[in-house]
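Shipment paperwork, digital attachment
Item: protein structure file
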Amino acid sequence: MNKSTNIISSLSQECLTLPSIGMSRWSQIKSFIPFSKEKFRQLCLEKKAPQPIRMGIRCTFYSNQEIHRFLNDPLNYSAQ
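Attachment content:
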């Protein structure tokens, strides 16, 4: 294997799990969320999903801890 194959392989392995701490963008969590981005946004507005953290006009993050809490019990989740 060449160097670029090793980098791609390691990146794809990193994307298989969501870190338990820190913050992630939608593109990093979308493979774990069983809804479309729009449905997830609607759930956020209803306080039934983790609240987005805005870092600017086009920069939104989600707390990994809250995402894990949501995924453990999505029906009973409520934003704090």
